Amino acid sequence: MNPTKLIGIILIVAGCLGLAYGGFTYTRETTGLKLGPLEVKVQERETVAVPLIVSAGAIAIGVFLLVAVGRK
C-alpha cells in the first residue's frame, strides 16, 4: 500500500473519531507532597477538546490524499 494512501486513511479515521467524541481525557499523576521518603501522589484528569474545524480539516485532507493518489 502506498504511504500516501495510508496517511489519507489515518487522517480520515482520526477526523471521524474527533467528530464523534469531540475530545479525549487522560490522567496525569503528579507529586502533591514530598516529605523525606514519603510522597503523596495526586491524579489529575485532563481533558483535551478537539475543535470541529480540525476534525473536518483532517477528513478533507485525507480525502484529498486518497483522490490525488488514485488519479496517478
Account of the protein in words:
By secondary structure, this protein is of the alpha+beta class. The chain has one domain. It is built from two helices and two strands. It has helices spanning 3-21, 52-71, and strands at 23-35, 38-49. Strands 1-2 form a two-stranded antiparallel ribbon. Strand 1 and strand 2 form a beta hairpin. Helix 1 packs antiparallel against helix 2. The model has no long low-confidence stretch (mean pLDDT 91).
What's the short story on this structure?
The chain contains 2 helices and 2 strands; from the N terminus they run αββα. It has 72 residues and is an alpha+beta fold. It has one domain.
For the CA atoms, what is the radius of gyration?
A: 20 Å
Strand-pairing-aware structural class: alpha+beta
Per DSSP, what share of the residues sits in E-state strands of 2 or more residues? 25-35%
Note the main sheet: 2 strands, antiparallel
Q: State mean pLDDT (0 to 100 scale).
A: 91
- Taken together, the total number of domains comes to 1
Instruction: Show unreliable segments.
Output: none
Percentage of helical residues? 40-55%
Let me know the number of strands: 2
Instruction: Tell me the strand order in the biggest sheet.
Output: 1-2
Tally of alpha and pi helices: 2
Order of helices and strands: HEEH
Shape: elongated
Question: What is the topology?
Answer:
Elements: H1 3-21, E1 23-35, E2 38-49, H2 52-71
Antiparallel strand pairs: 1-2
